[in-house]
Amino acid sequence: MFFVFGVPQLYEMWERHQQIETVTLRHELELDALMTLESPSKADQIRIETLNKIISQRNKAALSKDKTIYQTIGLVFFLGLMFVVFAIDRRKLKQTKQIQYQVEDSAQFDDPSFDTVAQQTSWNPLHPGGSNFVSHKLKKIDSNRIKVKKTGTMNIIGWTFLLIGFNYIFFEFLFAYQTDLLFMQGWLKNIQLFFKSGGIFFIIGLFFVLRWGQNSVFDKNMQQFKKGGQQISFSNIYAIQLLTEFVQGNSQGGSSYYSYELNLVLNNGERINVMDHGSPTHIEQDAIVLADFLKIPIWSRM
C-alpha cells in the first residue's frame, strides 16, 4: 500500500519542487540584472530588497522540501530493502525445512517424567514473549563448533530501525546546518531535534544490533558453551528442553501467536535460553542437531 500511494505522492512533491525552483531562478536572474544597474531608481531598490527576501525565503523552503524528499526516498529504499531480505530469508528457511538430519539414538526425544533433574526443572517460559518468526538458527562452523546465529530477518529488523532513524537525523541536521539553525538554537534544542527527527528509531535499532549482535557458540575444543559473558562447561549441561508459550496479543489489536523455546538444562536444574522463536519445525531440527553434538537427551513439551 505504501508503494502504491507513497511513490506517486513523492513524484508530485518533486514536480512542485521543480516548479518552485523555476520561479526562484527567474527571480535570481531578475535580481542579477537589477544589481548591474549603475544608478538604480527608488523603485529598483525596493524591488531588489523584495527579491532578496523572496529568494531567501524560497531557498529555505526549497531546502526544507529537499530534506523531506530525500528522507522519503531513504524511507522507501530501506523499507524495500527490508522486504527483499525478509523474502530471501523466508525462502531459505522454507528450503531448510526439507533437510533431514541423521542423528544417533542418544539424540532422540526422552520422557522427562522420571528424571530427578527434570523434577527440579521449571517448565514455565524462561524468556516470556519470544517472536513469531525464526529469529535464530544453528550454523555448523566445523566438526567441533556450532554457532547460534541471527537469521537475516532478525538482522534486517535492527538495521532497518537504525538506518531509517539515521536517514531522518542526517537530513534534519543537514538542513539545520545549511540554514544556520544548528548554531543559532543551542545544544539543548539540537538534542530535542535529534529525538524529534529520528533518534528514537536510531536508538531502538542500535539496541537491536548491539544487544543481539554477538552470536553464541558451542565449542568442543574448549568444551564450553559461550553466550555473551557466560561460559558454561559441557559437563554441566544435562539436557535440552523444548517448550511452547502462547503469547497473547495486546488490546490494540495485536495478533496472538505461539513461541517456542530451546533451553539448556544444567545439572542443578537451572536453565539457559539458546533461542526462542515462532517455528516449531526449525527449533526441533536445531534441538536434534545440538543434542547429537553434545550427546545429551531432549525433553519436549511442544
UniProtKB/TrEMBL annotation:
Keyword annotations from UniProtKB, A to Z: Membrane, Transmembrane, Transmembrane helix
Taxonomy, superkingdom: Bacteria
Ranges that cross the membrane: 69-88, 153-171, 191-210
Keyword Transmembrane helix recorded: yes
Protein name: Uncharacterized protein
Organism: Aquimarina brevivitae
Organism classification: Bacteria, Pseudomonadati, Bacteroidota, Flavobacteriia, Flavobacteriales
